[in-house]
DUF4286 family protein (Paracraurococcus lichenis), 152 residues
Amino acid sequence: MADLLIQPGRGEGVRYQDLENPADVWHWLENPPAGATGGIPYAFIASLGDVSRPAPFLYTVELDIAEPDLPAIYEWYEQEHLPLLTSVPGCIGGTRYRRLDGGAPNLLAAYRFERPEVNQSAEWIKARSTPWCDRVRPLFRSTRRYVRRLVD
């Protein structure tokens, strides 16, 4: 069963609109009811910070990682990346998910922001510019990043 269901364009749940493409709206349904369909299902991996409520902004990073490389990516995220990024001022919390339907990209990281420009701050750039980041970044395939705003 999915812990998160993203229904692009329509559906239940909290709505987040892409800042660069306002027509791109995600319905973000955490803990979807049994039988919910019509979206991309994800399983929860880990979270840090306050992820208990919707945030004004959601920064998502989708990665496609080859199966043999997943343990290295998980270790990096848990030990360094998630703790560093969620400690940046303006980042409320972050959650990691793995896609369940076999599609790509297969990993999703979602960071809850107070302001849309948190990922452009000097602190954020420093947090994602470590030697460990440099070692794992070549494992990324088909990376997609979006800043979305909460809409009514």
